Amino acid sequence: MQIDILTLFPGMFESPFGDSIMKRAIEKKIVEIGLHNIRDYSKSKQKSVDDYAFGGGAGMVMQIEPIDLCMQKLKAERTYDEIIYLSPDGELFDQKLANQLSTKNNLMFLCGHYKGVDERVREHLVTREISIGNYVLTGGELATAVIVDAIVRLIPGVLSDETSALSDSFQDDLISPPVYTRPAEYKDWKVPEILLSGHEAKIEEWRHEQSLLRTKLRRPKMFGKEE
Ligand code: ADE
What we know:
alpha/beta, Alpha/beta knot, Trp Operon Repressor, Chain A, 2 domains, five-stranded parallel beta sheet, two-stranded antiparallel ribbon, 8 helices, 9 strands, binds adenine
């Protein structure tokens, strides 16, 4: 998968993509991530990328030209399945959307800043707008990192045990059951007896019950959807 990210702050991605599973997926060339500094596409002497909003009001607006020039260059190299703008008023990101996006070949993410981007970018250049939650971040970079992480781990070959992505919370509209490891007793906190019984069928049944219980308690709106 090719992922291209348009940002004013490429350095913000060094840490999320520089460790652990993301790092390995990049090294194994399962995913290729291109970071593109929008400022490099500014035609102004000062390399400015934003300007005052027409009609007045506080806050700067990201201009369309540098964004369009960067997109044009990338679109000449490949066809994108989606060009995604990160915005708090976009469609809410969830596991279903992560699954959908993980099957694509080429994705582009546009990270906004300041008061956002000129509306014409949203009208004419992007294909989709996504939010990672009903709160406002300083920009789209962290939201992009979250979405890319959730997508990349679903690509076959990224996780060492491929089945583990399938048993994630939310993958079947259920929350995962609790897990334990050694020691079986710590202070006087014990691991549930059933998990030490070696009875595979009973353990599976217990895990499913726990999943249902957790979903009912923690995500009551989701409960029953898996049926
Ligand atoms: N940019 C600012 N806040 C955001 C959010 N919650 N989701 C996606 N992009 C954002």
